[in-house]
Please model this.
Amino acid sequence: MKNEVKHTAHSSYRCEYHLVFAPKYRRKIIYKELRRDIIEIIKKLCKEMKVEIIEGEACPDHIHLLVSIPPYMSIAQFVGTLKSKSALMIFDRHANLKYKYGNRNFWCRGYFVDTVGKNEKMIQEYIRNQLEEDLASDQISLKEYMDPFTGSKRK
Model:
């Protein structure tokens, strides 16, 4: 459920973050089969870490996520685990990428994170429309009618 207070054994929380990270050298590599695999890997890792993906978008050169993270996990811990484990899984599935990236560093070192408060709807809309904006600027004719992260229909 979106925007609801969640509970652990001893706490109630709503810790939501807007997260953006990119492949090394900001290469436009996230498309076709690799895009599907990256989405699947991120969904799997988030499920294992008990992190809910509220909204997500895989653009050709970066990933947007709106996530709800349990209070016992820091955002740095989550991002570090997500990026390191996903890189290993990506290189296992796509061995040819090892030569482009070397040392198993698929993602660039940094990331952007913002806490979500009253502007959650605006951030969801921004993420939902991010691919369309990128496509318009790159003039690529790729449109998905289903959100690959949440499985819901796009508006």
Notes: The chain has a mean pLDDT of 83. The CA atoms of residues 38 and 90 lie 7 Å apart. Residues 75-93 form the longest helix (19 residues). Helices lie at 32-48, 75-93, 97-101, 120-138.
